[in-house]
Amino acid sequence: MSKGVISKDEDYSQWYNDLVIKADMAEYSPVRGCMIIKPYGYSIWEKMQSVLDKMFKDTGHSNAYFPLLIPKSFFSKEASHVEGFAKECAVVTHYRLKNDGSGNIVVDEEAKLEEELIIRPTSETIIWNTYRGWIQSYRDLPILVNQWANVMRWEMRTRLFLRTSEFLWQEGHTAHATAEEAVAETEQMLEVYADFVENFLALPVVRGRKTPNERFAGALDTYCIEALMQDGKALQAGTSHFLGQNFAKAFDVKFTNKENKLDYVWATSWGVSTRLIGALIMAHSDDAGLVLPPKLAPIQVVVVPIYKHDEELENITTYVNSLRKELIATGISVKFDNRDTHRPGAKFAEYELKGVPLRVAIGSRDMQNGTVELARRDTKTKETVNQEGLAARIEALLEEIQTNIYQKAANFRTENTTEVNDYEEFKRLLDEKPGFLSAHWDGTAETEQRIKDETKATIRCIPLNNKQEEGKCILTGKPSTQRVLFARAY
Amino acid sequence: MSKGVISKDEDYSQWYNDLVIKADMAEYSPVRGCMIIKPYGYSIWEKMQSVLDKMFKDTGHSNAYFPLLIPKSFFSKEASHVEGFAKECAVVTHYRLKNDGSGNIVVDEEAKLEEELIIRPTSETIIWNTYRGWIQSYRDLPILVNQWANVMRWEMRTRLFLRTSEFLWQEGHTAHATAEEAVAETEQMLEVYADFVENFLALPVVRGRKTPNERFAGALDTYCIEALMQDGKALQAGTSHFLGQNFAKAFDVKFTNKENKLDYVWATSWGVSTRLIGALIMAHSDDAGLVLPPKLAPIQVVVVPIYKHDEELENITTYVNSLRKELIATGISVKFDNRDTHRPGAKFAEYELKGVPLRVAIGSRDMQNGTVELARRDTKTKETVNQEGLAARIEALLEEIQTNIYQKAANFRTENTTEVNDYEEFKRLLDEKPGFLSAHWDGTAETEQRIKDETKATIRCIPLNNKQEEGKCILTGKPSTQRVLFARAY
């Protein structure tokens, strides 16, 4: 509850919000639902981008850029797509302001657009309209394109990073000659996301498929990764869609196949967003502040000198400079905080709040003894260690911290994933011990909706490689062949 | 005139447009004035971003992200700023579409915004509104922030990369305690831009300041770098603005200085955009296609095998793989084009069009002789060289090409920069031998405007460190103490 951050057990939602603000990650803007991503928060996004971008390129994708604005008519071409996005989109209607003569700046009604333009909530329509010009034959396929961009969905209830009207994301849009190839791409990108979230965000995920109800507007199949937050709510961390030929049909994108016949092109799209920063914060942090996995921490090691006299600082600085050099050479980011405007205690609290994985404190006695004090953010443990071999020790510790943070989240998920066979028990657990509830479902949209209406729990996914077992739907008692994963969700 | 590209001497403007399209750099979109940046064009932007981003960080800047949409009222707060941008901005008025009952998707008039939002044409207003909350004391200064973003200016006459309604750019926005510090930042960033354009785009620039007429809307002083294109027109390649306290006053951003007095904060902003890709193309390319400086070429070396039988290809491939390994180890990007669907001649033409700096061709006879054929894109020269030591030779050649492209552009600029003392001669040169015209000017906005109206030439800049000399204004004959640089411009 330090520094104005409420305890997460007291009010998880407020704790999250306080933490985002106090740790200098982001703040709300005067534009409803839009956020300002501050340098510290943005540097985590940059790390995510750089890792993901390499993963996309290693799997053969290239980046491109498509227009922010989409003609309204494009939107209407794919029926379920417009249905899904029309209710929450920003509409551009004019292209000029003017001075009304009495000094007020007003919209110039003479500059009204013939056709309204929508700020992209996602880019399938404008991209598939473009692909029509790029694809004639199977030789032009596959097209493996990704875009890093801002998108806008006019959300009514927003939360920093988790749900904002404007957010940053990447959206992959690929075109294929066969359904099989498109499905393989969809699955490949889901695995890329799962790999990224598990190995970099240190957050275990369940790979699965959405029910028809929960699919992306325009998709035949939506794959997703689902993670569990510390309050027992689920968070969808990434999606990968098999779009079939829906967009090719809507935008008339045909190709000549190897048999010299015309066919519609097969599509996928997949995306993750700045929402991942919200997941990262929610999954690992504590009442003292952020806990960042070393692989995504903007600063991995901070060094704080403890001294009274300038000669002491000089002495410490000489040592720290050589340590820094060693660490930087192994790719570890280090900050030496030698500000004389703040006391060591204030610095400790600041880096704890900001989730720096390792803190090194060095005083004059340490210099005499050839030691330093090493403090881990994740376990809040401290130890005095020798300066000799410190760089190697830090390198190993960072790996250990990454693993430990993951393991803690994995244990939490195990403890909060329950097989349930009774609807009363199901409802009780949702209130008393929320988490993933693995239960039988009769496969109908009606049942899914009733459970949602009655409990606010949704089917997060049908896990991939799900065990087949006979069972009875938790609500209707009708026969079922597999369990699905329910939870309340962000 | 190959591959549908017209000769640049015949029609420079058409040549540029054809080249952008044929080389797969970009294309127009269905949204008026907006472009689609294709993967090949975007990969050049990515290279530019990565170099500039490092330069910004090396000079102490961090990235952040501010909202796309700006409340209309923010715009009106700085008088000359709104004057400069109101006439060409996209206005969001509604936040929902609806089905009108007969299947048409229309704007939902019930979802009209109370205050219209403007898609950012630049972010000074939203950022300075934010800085108010970040700055209390001199200890909070300087703030050194950069943003990579899309912006929108509703241009009536657009050209791919050079002038589009939406474009990508970076905008630095810094806050300082003193005017001197802000001016130093403005000058530092101009030098960063000049360094980048000269050393990476291989394009010499003139560093200078704009006349009051040509300043950024809201700036006290605008610094710029100006480059000369092959048709003798100038292109503004980057600007850095000293904004004084204008935005701090408009958004009430005050701080307590070291003397414990309240004062307004001093500001700078600076930006370069995807326009640089247009400059890159225009400055160096020829009738056969792009000529890219190696430091920004997405592919630096392409290897084309020449063979009839598969065994020959196998043999060549073994060698190429070892060459690639060597090249990649020194950071050189290589593409081995072993497609069997295209003949070597077609491949040669493709990479010429796309401006790949070096082409290596290898046939069976080369393999017997231990040689390859090396072709330079910039000079269009070919030579047969030994495979032994080839990687080192390629590395040296790429540097030589970078230097040569720069030198060619520098020579062109020298040949097309003329000191003029007579207005008739000035007009004649603009038509017959366009380029930079260095001439005396009486320093008044009226004269500047008359020259612009009569000749379409503008004052590109007052060069930094300009030689002081007595002279007479080319139009009015009034006394002048220095020459300024005129040109027709993009």
From TrEMBL, chains A, B:
Molecular function terms from GO: ligase activity
Residue ranges annotated for the Aminoacyl-transfer RNA synthetases class-II family profile domain, each copy included: 39-293
UniProt protein name: Proline--tRNA ligase
Note on domains (UniProt): Consists of three domains: the N-terminal catalytic domain, the anticodon-binding domain and the C-terminal extension.
Localization (cell): Cytoplasm
Keyword DNA damage: no
Keywords: Aminoacyl-tRNA synthetase, ATP-binding, Cytoplasm, Ligase, Nucleotide-binding, Protein biosynthesis
PROSITE patterns per UniProt: AA_TRNA_LIGASE_II
Subunit annotation: Homodimer.
EC number in record: 6.1.1.15
Gene field: proS
Taxonomic source organism: Mucilaginibacter panaciglaebae
Membership in a protein family: Belongs to the class-II aminoacyl-tRNA synthetase family. ProS type 3 subfamily.
SUPFAM superfamilies in UniProt: C-terminal domain of ProRS, Class II aaRS ABD-related, Class II aaRS and biotin synthetases
Reactions mediated catalytically: tRNA(Pro) + L-proline + ATP = L-prolyl-tRNA(Pro) + AMP + diphosphate
CDD domains on file: ProRS_anticodon_zinc, ProRS_core_arch_euk
One of the Pfam families matching this protein, by short name: HGTP_anticodon
Stored SMART domains: ProRS-C_1
